[in-house]
Amino acid sequence: MTDKKIEVCLAGFGNFGKKLFSYLEKMPEFLVRYIYHPNQEKSAQYGPLGTSDIHCILNDPNLEAVIIATPHDQHVGLLEPLLLLGRHHVFVEKPMTAVCEEALALEQVFLAYRKRKVFMVGHNQRREAVFRKAKELLDKKAIGSVVDVSFNFSHGGVYNIDPGNWRCDKKRTREGPLITLGSHAIDTIHYLFGPVRSVCATIRNVSGRTTAPDCSATLMSLDNNVAVSLHVNYNVPSEKRCVISGTEGVIYIDRDRIFLRLGRDTDKMPTRKEKLTVISVDTVREELQEFSDAILKGKKVETGFAEGAAVMKVLEACYDSSLTHTPRRLSL
């Protein structure tokens, strides 16, 4: 292992930013040089690492990477100067931007940037052991041809969230949980099954506790004719379920457990589900390790600009579908 440390700036020090910081401190590949917040008073709360001076960060010749964990509506304000300058490797937490238009605007800048630096988007749900196992089974055609998928990724956070939290503000998160939680699920859908062709979505507020939506339901048609039903909510007891139905069997995912049922019914009796053994993975550490390996060893990242932009295109289509009450087809 090389003794070289990657000097990084961590932008954003909320819940997930603090989690990332705890990993960066322990990983020998990284050295945190700055914790950035645009507000000087708030950055001062971060101690000697805190700074609100973005020009100091951008022009520090020793700084190699920036890790962005701010609310997603602040991502583009950091991504644009970083990509234009082209001096720093970038890891940005999902979703890559707040709206698809921002991602598309960055695309041309990225084409030049990618030749010099590493760009990674933190879509880490696909790394979970149950989804890696599902991918292995699907690649083997263990359940035959996939027919349909039901995905629910939800919790009841709207009932205990601070009303001042940015997630409550429709102007800052117009898709509600679909963009915060659902961006994980959409990337996982791409990983397991391939591109989304069309969507029909409803995004709404049921609780009345926020101006932002608190629930969504989306029917997706994929390029391979698989149908996916995705439910993402902030107003129900927590769920993390995925049922993948194929012509020869069914895969059931319930949080960190995965089950497999093979064969059709016999005398109207279903075959038994078998619980599969998987080894838990620390997905945050894995993605940060991959980021460092890409910088130090030239390895390729699994979720880069293309994967991040693909999720944003689906989210845009879902938002348009909900506004117009009509299905939306994604452009190629």
Q: What's the helical proportion of residues?
A: 25-40%
N-C termini distance: 42 Å
> CATH homologous superfamily of the largest domain - what is it?
Dihydrodipicolinate Reductase, domain 2
- The CATH architecture classification of the largest domain is 2-Layer Sandwich
The overall strand count is 15
What is the overall silhouette?
globular
Write out the strand line-up for the largest beta sheet, numbering strands in chain order. 14-13-12-11-7-10-9-8-15
CATH class assignment of the largest domain: Alpha Beta
Average pLDDT across residues?
A: 96
Order of helices and strands: EHEHEHEHEHEHEHHEEEEEEEHHE
β-sheet strand percentage:
25-35%
GO molecular function: nucleotide binding
Pfam family, one: GFO_IDH_MocA_C3
InterPro entries: Gfo/Idh/MocA-like_OxRdtase_N, Gfo/Idh/MocA_Oxidoreductases, GFO_IDH_MocA-like_dom, NAD(P)-bd_dom_sf
Protein name: Oxidoreductase
